[in-house]
Specification:
By secondary structure, the chain is mostly helical. 79% of the residues lie in helices and 0% in strands.
Length: 329
């Protein structure tokens, strides 16, 4: 019971992160399941089965808050489902010994990507035009495949790519990616069911993750409007990097002073990323404040000029105004 309560808490925290960043539910949950000793295929299968419920709740909540672009959802979900089914089939056919470092490597890479991505200022300006299917379809295919083979990755691949395009509001990027993930999670679950059978799913674990995620989904859809994504992304990226580095170091059989040295190096990189994230967040807020002040000053100047009326040079004598003319003849 204690373990299930911990897993429910993991599901809750993971969904809060995912709903606020548009990524990291699978990364967080799969990482912790691997640490607990769950086989890679079973961990990814259980997480994706739980995600069917959490993404449905998250998608509904994002829709209610106006965070979903259905055109993007329809063009990214189907290719994502195809990629996820293929990835689940591949992971199901690999032995546990071979899959563990493979999955840890994917998670480590995605965690490092989060560190680098959120250590830099996030793009807030939007370009003109609409996202095309020839961009969305390959993106969904790759993101779905990485998601199923790594136990997570749909958000870390899809969300930054859509943000960098600059053609969608960040909240709509997150809402659309979370909504499309419902189809991706369902396709991955079918692939794992075919490859592993029903015994590949840890149903108590699925139930615990699902309950925690369902509780957090509505709150996460609201938090996406106020949470500082810059800091949250850098923080969760460091956790994923350090946790999966443990599996990779063990697989490489690194002993002696090399192991603690690597941990110190990774921790230093995480700290540096957090410092850069704080600086980027402050610069962004300062730039927004300056832009708001400049806009307010311009509006105040225009309002005072309008209140002052015409200048002395533009004033019209009363007798001429009564005659309906503005200048002497």
């Amino acid at each position: 019971m204690r373990k299930l309560l911990v897993l429910a808490l993991v599901g809750l925290v993971a969904q809060l992160i995912d709903g606020s960043l548009g990524m990291a539910y699978g990364l967080t949950s799969s990482t912790l399941l691997l640490v607990a000793g769950v086989a890679p295929a079973a961990a990814s299968a259980s997480v994706h089965l739980a995600e069917i419920g959490t993404t449905l709740a998250a998608g509904f909540a994002h829709w209610r808050f106006g965070n979903v672009d259905w055109r993007v959802v329809t063009r990214i979900a189907l290719p994502g489902a195809i990629g996820a089914f293929a990835g689940a089939t591949v992971l199901s056919s690999i032995s546990t010994e071979a899959a563990a470092p493979w999955m840890a490597g994917i998670l480590f890479t995605l965690g490092a990507y989060l560190l680098v991505r959120f250590a830099r200022p996030l793009r807030t300006d939007r370009a003109g035009g609409r996202l095309r299917g020839r961009f969305l379809s390959p993106l969904g295919l790759v993101a779905g495949f990485v998601d199923a083979t790594g136990g997570g990755g749909w958000g870390p691949v899809a969300t930054p790519a859509l943000l960098v395009s600059g053609r969608m509001e960040p909240r709509k990027v997150i809402g659309s990616v979370d909504t499309a993930e419902f189809v991706v999670a369902g396709a991955a679950s079918v692939g794992f069911l075919i490859g592993l059978g029903t015994e590949g799913f840890l149903l108590p674990t699925v139930a615990a993750l699902l309950i925690g995620g369902l509780i957090a989904a509505p709150l996460a859809a609201w938090l996406v409007r106020i949470v500082p994504a810059q800091l949250l992304g850098a923080a969760i990226g460091g956790v994923i990097v350090l946790t999966n580095a443990r599996t990779l170091i063990r697989s490489a059989e690194l002993d002696g002073p090399v192991r603690p040295a690597l941990y110190v190096l990774l921790a230093a990189g995480w700290l540096a990323a957090l410092v850069f994230a704080v600086r980027a967040l402050r610069r962004t807020r300062r730039a927004r404040a300056e832009a708001a002040n400049a806009s307010a000053a311009a509006n105040a100047s225009a309002a005072s000029a309008a209140a002052a009326g015409p200048s002395a040079e533009e004033e019209v004598p009363a007798d001429l105004a009564a005659m309906g003319t503005s200048a002497p003849r």
